[in-house]
Amino acid sequence: MPISKGSPYGEPGALPDDGVVVRTDAEARAVIAEARRDGRPLPVLGLLGGDLCRTLNGPGDEGRLRSPDAVRFNVDLGEALLDGRLHVFVAHLVARTRRWRHAFVAMNAQFVGDWVLGPRAHPNDGLLDVYEADLSLADRLKVRSRAGHGAHMPHPGIKERRVPAVQVEFEQARPIYLDGERHGEARKLSVRVEPDALTVVV
């Protein structure tokens, strides 16, 4: 069940013996995709890095994952329909033009690399934080200078929504990045969140 406002988040819990240790968001997505393709339950993931791990204040210590200090979290999972195929993402989906003039971002974590693009995003609230940007060069420079602290919002050139699902259509196909890896191009996107889909340990 997605967390409610003001509720404590996370509980003590070590990575089980059949848990899978991953070092990036892309590795986590690959493990999930493989399990779903094989019709297996999703394994518990031990996070050592990536934007979801950082959002959960994970220290990246492999020894901690199976120790009494480990913390277990239920997290949501993003799903995107691209060209008729369903893909998953654990941290974010980014569809953007080459220099970020036009961008669509769906956040399940707070970070995209060094940028805090989803300052209010929570990985277990049953919602995706969605941003659609149409920015001039001057505005892009201002946003870049503030995005490292999440201080770029609100901005008149960036539309913000918090939704369980969204459909968008671009004028032209854009490159799609799932958890930092490029996955072709698309002009139409259907994105949704699957609440409480995954358990992770940091």
What does this structure look like?
The chain is 16% helix and 42% strand. The chain is built from 4 helices and 11 strands. Strands 1, 2, 3, 4, 5, 6, 7, 8, 9, 10 and 11 form an 11-stranded mixed β-sheet that branches. The mean pLDDT is 89.
Low-confidence spans: none
Span of the ends, CA to CA: 20 Å
Q: What is the CATH topology classification name of the largest domain?
A: Tumour Suppressor Smad4
Structural class category: alpha+beta
Count of individual helical segments? 4
CATH class of the largest domain: Mainly Beta
Number of domains: 2
List the helices and strands and how they pair.
Blueprint lengths: L10 E2 L7 E3 L2 H13 L7 E3 L3 H5 L6 H4 L5 E12 L2 E5 L2 E5 L5 E6 L20 E7 L2 H11 L10 E6 L1 E14 L2 E21 L1
Parallel strand pairs: 2-3, 3-11
Antiparallel strand pairs: 1-4, 4-5, 4-11, 6-7, 6-10, 7-8, 8-9, 10-11
Give a quick rundown of the structure.
The protein contains 4 helices and 11 strands, in the order ββαβααβββββαβββ.
